Amino acid sequence: MAETDLALAEALLLPAVHLFAVVAGASALRETVELARGAKDDLYAEARSALADAGLAVRLEEAVWRVDGVTGNPQRAAADVVTTVRRVSGRAAVAVACTGGDRAVLVACDDRIMLLADSRTAMWSVYELSSVHTLLSLVAGAVGGLPPGPAPVVRCAPHLRSSASWAS
């Protein structure tokens, strides 16, 4: 698709001849080809496009997705980025940092384990994601975001447990 000759493809577009028929127009064709060309050089082009359509201006800095100036709930924005990037890239590990107003959220996921740090709480939480839920589906149902609280899904080595206040 990325090597498509746009002039030829536009010349070969079929007109809608049947009542209520819908066919792709020249602008939709151009947009699709441009997205394919971008994806050829950028593995995350599809994710960036989907997130831009959702109104999120994201950038990837040193393997962390950044979203600044979020209006509303930064947890929801982070969940949207994690879910979209994981779906599009197939990668299990994704890290997202979102800021909005006077609040910041960091979400790091690796397979089914998620770490959530929210600036409005004095702690971070670890959650286990089930195979049928995405982070977005969990956050979407929680007013204001996920409730802070420890979730004992990560085991700590005995010699670390005594020195780590968060592991008790």
Structure description:
- It contains six helices and six strands.
- It has 168 residues and is an alpha+beta fold.
- It has a six-stranded mixed β-sheet.
- Strand 4 (103-110) and strand 5 (113-118) form a beta hairpin.
- The protein starts with 5 loop residues before the first helix and ends in a 7-residue tail after the last helix.
Shape: elongated
Tell me the total number of β-strands.
6
Strand content: 15-25%
Percent range of helical residues: 25-40%
Number of helices: 6
Task: Enumerate the strands of the largest sheet in spatial order, edge to edge or round the barrel.
Answer: 1-2-3-4-5-6
Question: Which residue ranges are poorly predicted, with pLDDT under 50 across at least 5 consecutive positions?
Answer: 149-168
Distance between the termini: 54 Å
Instruction: Tell me the quaternary state.
Output: single chain
The chain-level structural class is alpha+beta
Radius of gyration: 21 Å
What's the overall average pLDDT, rounded? Answer: 77
The main β sheet shows up as:
6 strands, mixed
**Secondary-structure element pattern, one letter each:** HHHEEHEEEEHH
Short description:
By secondary structure, the protein is of the alpha+beta class.
SSE map:
Layout: H1 6-11, H2 26-41, H3 45-53, E1 58-61, E2 64-67, H4 74-89, E3 93-100, E4 103-110, E5 113-118, E6 124-128, H5 135-140, H6 158-161
Parallel strand pairs: 2-3
Antiparallel strand pairs: 1-2, 3-4, 4-5, 5-6
Helix pairs in contact: 3-4
